[in-house]
Structures
1.
Amino acid sequence: MSEARDTIIVGAGIVGSACAWECAKRGLRVLLLDAGPIGGGTTAAGMGHIVVMDDSEAQFALTAYSRRLWDELAAELPREVEHDPCGTLWAAADEEEMAEVHRKAHYYRERGIEVEVIEGSNLREMEPRLRAGLAGGLRVPGDSVVYPPCAARWMTERAREAGAEVRTGARVRRLVEEGGVELDTGEVIEAVVSVNAAGIGAGGLMMPEGLPVRGRKGHLAITDRYPGFVRHQIIELGYLKSAHGGGGDSVAFNIQPRKTGQMLIGSSRQYDAVDTQVEPPILDRMLRRAIEYIPTLGELSVVRVWTGQRAATPDKLPLIGPMPSNSAIWLATGHEGLGITTSLGTARLLADRLVGGEPEIPSKAYDPGRFAVEALAHV
Amino acid sequence: MSESIRVRVNGEDVVVPPGTVAAAAAARAGVTFFRLSVGGDRRGPLCGMGICFECRMTIDGRPHQRGCMVVCENGMELQTDESA
Amino acid sequence: MSRPEARSEFDVLVVGGGPAGIGAACAAVESSGSVRVGLIDESPWPGGQIWRGEGLAHGHSAKAGLWLKRLAASGVEVRSGSTVIGTGGAGVLVVEDRSGAGRISYNRLILCSGSRERFLPFPGWTSPRVVGAGGLQTLVKSGWPVEGKRVVVAGSGPLLLAVADGVNAAGGRVAAIVEQASWKRVMGFGMELSRFPAKLGQAVALRSRLATVPYLCGWWPTRVEDSTDGLLRVELTDGRRTREERVDLLACGFGLIPSIELAGMLGCGVKGGRIGVDDCQQTDVAGIYAAGEATGIKGGDSALVEGRLAGYSSVGEEVRADSLKGERDRWRRFGRAMEEAFVLRDELKCLADDSTIVCRCEDVTYGKLKARGSAREAKLQTRCGMGPCQGRVCGGATSFLFGWEADTVRPPLMASRLSSLLHLKGQGESER
């Protein structure tokens, strides 16, 4: 511990792990810290969907960029990461949603993302478990699925090989203003820059100011093995617009075939539900929504239900870059439900900006400076 | 209680005494394993009381049923991975 | 549920239909006043594992038969084949059976969730020819054929003797009973039995029926493998010597573990892996009682007494409850003596090699687990405990091998149909 680190990254979720790997590759002396096991927080609770999303231009840019980075890694990913290029199928319930399919198809194609518009009954030929009467869908063949905790671990192993040090079971109390961190044991570890990648815990490390990051709770259920029950990750098209667009509690149909043959079923979103309890009222809504789309789902055996907290920002974009008030403290948090996808893009942007390289995509939309200092403190 | 129960195990008729559970009927039919594990290993019942899920079988078309917890009824169709 | 006319509201609801549950339900219903008592049991018939099949044509023990008849005549509403999959808010359990699911409400709850076997991994133990010790006993009582089969019964605890007896009675041939506890400890426990005449009588009768079966104390299995003659080769050791048996089946279990998942979900305090109860068998949650093996392993006779005590306590029959406390306390001493005598030896921690499977649902090997720091880390990185048994099998092993504690309990308590989860929410219950 004699020489100071260049970078301490707090949080070995998938975002922190990706950042540690990328920074180490750039030759920085990196220390990655986590209070729990690697990938044990929100990373462990998520679905692991690698997906291009178009809620905003900036969201599209980061997800498309990140998906490309995942594709570049695909051949290297070990078996336990369960990489599965199953694609996404956005299901449209009615003609209004079908119009959205066409809009989305145009938007994606214009930006170089391959898509396939599925009309009417062709949808059930593709996924026979879906109920009759759906209007159609949009297939995004390039989307894929991974198992996030093992993906995070694999990244920390690559980070180690690139020279990073990884310490789990080390709880950080706060980030030191001059760079570095103080552990809850009182130990202070110095660094030129510290990166707060602590997800929903990120604000707690920066008291009293805090951060504009709120927990947004989600529920998931996973079944026993039914290989081939569905073949794509299927999501209702209204996912972001109608289902999860507002600030209230919401559910949306989302089913993912795991490589194990298990079916992972989501999704729900709730603000201000800070505990980890499974909540029957919203679980009920979520499962009923899923059965609306796949009527035979009710017969499947569920082996586990769990919850997690997404780190949500007011504009649904992550915080990547230095604090406006203190360039010794950087942020890589606030990824909401897209942290698995955008971990790789986040790491590239962060490392590019840290060592002065030119990012491949514009970074401004994710810069913490977009929130006024007061907003950073009081959202 | 004295009459016997007729079930089909992997397509073959088996006659068992009343009160026989599906897993036991399969054993009486000469089944040597019930399921192939995730890694392809042969498995059979372990706990006998519904805890371990090693005796999972398809019962009347429904997969992943615990054979030790289901009592045989006339005409029941039982299938193990050994049939595959 | 399958019986739409069936009641779904009870003054006293008992979970578990073994001796504790039967004793509890009978005591509650037979008390003064009209008390609606229900009993939910996962098995196809009441009796639990110890009295399983006693009501069928598989033979009787007088005591079991008596209590099963008493239950049948008692007015207790018994729901066999019903699994508790979660809680549905205060005073409600959600229960699934073969045909559906539903909500059952209660004023008083008595948890008699019993115990399960501890299984320890050793090379070859996942063979279909290796069955739990209690597992084989239960299966034999449910029609599993052992006629003419050569069986070794191994592991630990007095249960091994009962298993061997049951196998022989069903036409099997038990080649040996292999007890990991030393002769000295087993003899010491035998001396202790003299304080419990009923148990001593049972033990003497059992030993005389098993007089020709070798009872190897201080021995344990180290490896099994299929041999060319179509049998299973079982390697045994006492730490210095080895011996080999060729059998059709190895029945193997290393003692019993209380089943406490439902208690945990209900917020009841758990101490040392068992549900904590007061002098009246009440848990630290008012109105929830517990009895039998789930409160500590003490055997079926003890479970019956505790169950009755809990049943009387739950309906305010204090005098009758008090009259059972002396007997209950004596069984607690018996339980402690048993626990001390059959404590697992450290050598059993070294049986698995790196390729030995520990988590049978997900085929996770000892080699992959030994480098992990906690059950949580192991679960996330190796899938250990993520299968349909929800860690009930590997958890008993990893707590002994690595000292890991089980993860939080969440619904569904047991793997259940997705549609059954739609009963977790009560009517009129809304989101916060």
2.
Amino acid sequence: MRFEPVIGLEVHAQLDTETKIFCSCSTSFGASPNAHTCPVCTGMPGVLPVLNHQAVTFAIKTALATNCTVARESRFDRKNYFYPDLPKGYQITQYAAPIAEHGHLDIELEDGSEKRIGITRIHMEEDAGKLIHDPDRPKSMVDLNRTGIPLVEIVSEPDIRTPKEAGAYLRKLHAIVRYIGVCNGNMEEGSFRCDANISLRPVGQEEFGTRTELKNLNSFRNVEKAIAYEIQRQTYRLEEGHKIVQETRLWDTARNRTASMRSKEEAHDYRYFPEPDLVPLIVDDDWMTEVRESLPELPDAKKARFMEQYDLSGYDAAVLISGRSLADYFEAAAKGLKEAKLAANWVMGPVLGLLKNGEITIENVPVNAGQLAELLKLLEANTINAKAAKTVFDEMVASGKTPAEIVKAMGLEQVSDQSALDDMVTQVMDANPEELEAYRGGKTKLFSFFMGQIMKQSRGKADPKVITQILKEKL
Amino acid sequence: MKISKDDVEHIAHLARLEVDDSLVEKFSTQVSGILDYIDVLKDVDVSGVPLASGAALQTNVFREDRVKPSPGPSVTLTNAPDRDDDFYTVPKVVG
């Protein structure tokens, strides 16, 4: 029997606010244990939560950027369970009346076609704390700094069928939340987390099979690997006549497999009820308009514009729009150039090459976009040739000097002067009579030998186009 | 609405309360009584009676997103039964 995987993803994105969702404690990462805690976020008796306005604005922004319908009225509920990372004994979340529903993202498949993945809902909630399990003693240590950091949970429809589709959907969502500035997207710090629900059903069957939920998927690569593993595991179980157990499984990065997690006791008896300490949230037209007008150009629109405006390939445009800062860098570098493709090549090549060690980002890259633009203009005006341009670029990285200064100091101006180059070609031909004879005898491969000799003599400054022309005439 | 002895035990477990067997029958009767009384309240005609609580009519109560100093561990850990530096500790919950 052949089976079809049915996959849905739940993404938790931390909203990039200064303070927690219901109190004024800081959300900054890396503070000492429990430094960012107060009676409100630790659930002391008698305290009242008060909703962070900015967190709501960010949730609305996320909803609009994922084509959701924003609810005019939404509310908060309590989700009750006991776990040491949850000091109140309940999590405040939007269960019955979420802030947004019915969205979608269009992902690009490997064959170039598009597929629409539905978004069921987006709701706001508070994050839980962090537990550190003592390796030597039977103890868990509790740090509540993360408790109460605002999250949006973005729940997809079960429209995903392959690990690749899951990866494409996640990457797109990740790009969007970073573009619109609501989430820093840092997966290692847990700012952007993904759980996957996976089930199999016989091909052609409408009804879903029993699903498992995968957790601990802290990179795009792990999401794809874990889903692929789980599809295979469930396929074997079903083919051997077993039933799938509905359970939560953890992805084990070291062993490349999923393993059953001891089920949270009474996990399905959360006894949701309305949070009596919070009043209903109303999003009126003015607020919606304000947020809509604050939205930047989204990745898909930017990609389409880059292809159109700069005449770039889909591949180039996709690379350049992968981050908003990178896209801005490219546009600034391409400004005033005749061929934007030249800037695209330089940004995707030498500039991105500088970022590879992790510490340098596009925001603090040693050659800024304006300086690169200056260099590319010299190249486009034939003041220097491509080889010299790379030398200048490396020198810009090393010394921070301007391209014009470097070209002058290193004497790299391209020699395009016809008579000077004429002389140079004649000299090289005279100096290499054997090669000249061989070339004329039919060894046309020697053309590049002459090119090389002339470039050498000019110390890389000769205009290759002009030399080619002269050589062709003279040889 | 009848709350069975099983319901009482289930609810007690969810709330992590120990209930002596001898009390289960008693609580079953008492909790059923509370729910029955809510049914009595439901039957009262309150049409035309204004809401007494202002909160019931309020919407959109917000805070500005501005950090205030947190009391931190000195307050948060005051009642911690066990601690390790600035962490509070609990019996190991995983593995």
